[in-house]
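hey m, so remember when u said the tokens were messed up on ur end? i reran from scratch. heres the input so u can diff it against urs
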Amino acid sequence: MAQTLKWICLMLVYSLCACTKTADKPPMQIAPPDRGEVMCTQEVMQCPDGSWVGRSGPKCEFVCPAGDARK
């Protein structure tokens, strides 16, 4: 029983250490910055005129047909 408890504690400590190591890393870039490629998230926004738009452009902004750009 004591041996099993030791292994459980050891695995718990190992898991916590592994989680904290990955949490310190910066987010992974999708495309190298030198190629100029941008990948935007797949979100949509409803514009004041009722139409729906997704993020686009180099800054991944919402651009409504009326020209109202939002982040």
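this time it looks ok to me. The two ends are 57 Å apart (CA to CA). if urs says something different then somethings off w ur setup not the seq
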